[in-house]
Write a structure and sequence with these properties.
Elements: E1 17-20, H1 36-41, H2 43-49, E2 53-56, E3 60-61, E4 73-77, H3 84-96, E5 100-105, H4 115-122, E6 134-135, E7 156-159, E8 164-167, H5 182-198, E9 202-205, H6 246-257, E10 264-267, E11 289-290, H7 294-297, H8 302-315, E12 323-325, H9 334-352, E13 356-360, H10 380-384, H11 393-396, H12 426-430, H13 436-449, H14 451-455, E14 457-460, E15 467-474, E16 477-484, E17 490-493, E18 498-503, E19 511-512, E20 517-520, E21 525-530
Parallel strand pairs: 1-2, 1-13, 2-5, 5-9, 9-10, 10-11, 12-13
Antiparallel strand pairs: 3-4, 6-8, 7-8, 14-15, 15-16, 16-21, 17-20, 18-19, 18-21
Helix pairs in contact: 5-6, 9-13
């Protein structure tokens, strides 16, 4: 098994975590799809950038109907990515570079060709008959209730062999596991131990809020705000999502993680900000880091950001560690929403707020959504629920490493189109000392150098005149962060004396700042180190 990095039990509190979709990161064999060998070839880039951990979307054996989140075998690597030996080699190389590895854990459902489901659907008397959610037909022969799949239509599919329906939160080919069955829990725990024993540093739990569904199969009520929403969102999922018993499932998963010191459990959660505290746990711990997307979902102005950040911090239980996410494989690229100039401010905000920053491959070059022609769409969301802007392929397009036709990603035909030649790419930005890539790298370096940015106390300051501001402090070291969300210059005042450490424009060298004031240019953010009092 792969050697572990030193046991630093709370390493994630200081880490910057970088999500990678391996299929779109780097191809090594010319088939147009990224793989583990390609990822290995880019470790030097990850180390140069300054990331401390990578999270991989699923690499398990899969028919890949839903980006690998339909798993046929949890304990093998899909041949399209490589082999278990290649995985061990990758893990060892990452650890050698000082980078930790987090895998996606998909405990809610499997693929329909997984051996567990093949046995479960074969007979009501099979050994795994109760491993999935089965129900008899309604009196009229139709589905047991009105529950809807996220990908459209009924969430129930008829199985002739059992003369019953099975439940699928997502695709028909993704049957939901029955987490009320202790044998299912034990099987998932064994899967986790298989990878933890190999040396992985933790898991990101997919769809953690939907592990349990109502035992009485009660119908979901209509959504009073359904007008204009896609059909799957026209119900309020009271009885299918975020059930109280779900927390017991997360506690169980956390219990397995805690068998291995220094491993991380983060997870996809849902609900409004005031719900996020539940996912940390109280008497029994749950997720170390429930992923927080407030920076993605908040209107981009200083007052809204100030309020959203404050609401999030107030929702955290005592002792809980914050987390901030600015991108993901199923989240629309925020650079397309706020623009390149403001993306620089988001980079500084992400790397200076108290908490663990998560970014998605390409965020560091300010990548925007990639246009995907209709005939090249892969995402089942767009195919099954078209016309609502739900397609996630624009975020999943292959990484552009250089300005060539295939972007340095592959020598073959990319599985999804890339953005046009001349678009943002790594090579060009590595050669530009003032690029957004250079800014991300400088910010990660500052985090590594200054404990106050990693662990320090967060103190909000009043946002005025479109300037979002706050202070970080630890052991006498104090830093002020001011972000001009406006496109026009703004004068900003503070108390104390200090020197400017970094500007998002990367053209102001470290020097003493004028006493208690600075003229921020449009779309400029600064970090100011205060002199000791």
């Amino acid at each position: 098994m792969t050697a572990m990095l030193p046991d630093e039990s709370l390493w994630w509190r200081s880490a910057s975590i970088y999500e990678i979709a391996p299929i779109s990161f780097q191809d090594s064999d010319g088939d147009g799809k990224g793989d583990l060998g390609g990822l290995m070839s880019r470790i030097d880039y990850l180390k140069w950038l300054g990331v401390d951990a990578v999270w991989l979307t699923p690499i398990y054996k899969s028919p890949f109907r839903d980006f690998g989140y339909d798993i046929s075998d949890y304990c093998s690597v899909d041949p399209a990515f490589g082999s278990i030996d290649k995985f061990d080699e990758l893990l060892a190389a990452l650890h050698q570079a000082g980078i930790r590895l987090i895998l996606d854990l998909v405990p809610n459902h499997t693929a329909d060709d997984h051996e567990w489901f093949v046995e479960s659907r074969s007979s009501r008397n099979s050994a795994k008959a109760d491993w999935y959610i089965w129900a008899d037909a309604a009196e009229n022969g139709g589905p047991p209730n009105n529950w809807l799949s996220r990908f459209g239509g009924s969430a129930w599919e008829w199985c002739e062999a059992r003369r019953q329906y099975y439940y699928h939160s997502f695709l028909v080919e993704q049957p939901d596991l029955n987490w009320r069955n202790p044998d299912v829990r034990a099987a998932v725990a064994d899967v986790m131990r298989f990878w933890l024993d190999r040396g992985v540093d933790g898991f990101r739990v997919d769809a953690s809020a939907v592990l349990i569904k109502d035992a009485h199969l009660r119908d979901n009520p209509p959504n009073p705000e359904a007008e204009g929403k896609p059909p799957p969102q026209r119900q309020t999922p009271v009885f299918t999502d975020d059930r109280p018993e779900t927390m017991q499932c997360i506690e169980f998963i956390r219990g397995v993680i805690d068998e291995y010191p220094g491993r991380l459990l983060c997870g996809e959660v849902q609900g409004k900000t005031d719900r996020i505290g539940h996912f940390y746990g109280t008497e029994r711990p749950r997720l170390h880091l429930p992923l927080n997307f407030v920076l993605l979902d908040t209107p981009w102005n200083a007052f809204s950001l100030q309020a959203a950040i404050d609401a999030y911090f107030n929702a955290l239980p005592e002792g809980a560690w914050p987390v901030w996410v600015i991108g993901g494989h199923d989240k629309q690229r925020i650079a397309s929403k706020i623009g390149e100039a403001q993306m620089r401010l988001l980079a500084m905000l992400l790397m200076t707020l108290k908490g663990t920053p998560f970014l998605y491959m390409g965020d560091e070059i300010g990548r925007k959504r990639v246009s995907i022609p209709p005939d090249l769409v892969h995402d089942p969301f767009e195919k099954l629920v078209p016309g609502y802007g739900l397609c996630r392929d624009p975020e999943r397009a292959p990484m552009r490493w250089d300005g060539s036709v295939n972007g340095g990603f592959t020598k073959g035909r990319p599985w999804l189109p890339l953005d046009p030649e001349g678009s943002a790419n790594v090579s060009a930005q590595q050669s530009d000392q003032r690029s957004i890539l250079a800014l991300f790298r400088a910010l990660m370096s500052l985090r590594h150098e200054h404990a106050c940015l990693r662990q320090g106390h967060y103190e909000p300051l009043r946002s005025q005149n479109s300037v979002l501001a706050f202070k970080r402090e630890q052991n006498g070291e104090e830093m002020l962060i001011a972000l001009n969300i406006a496109a026009e210059p703004r004068k900003w005042h503070w108390q104390g004396r200090g020197h400017l450490l970094l500007s998002t424009h990367l053209d102001r060298t470290s020097k003493p700042a004028p006493d208690a004031s600075i003229l921020l240019r449009g779309n400029e953010g600064v970090i100011i180190a205060l002199e000791p009092r």
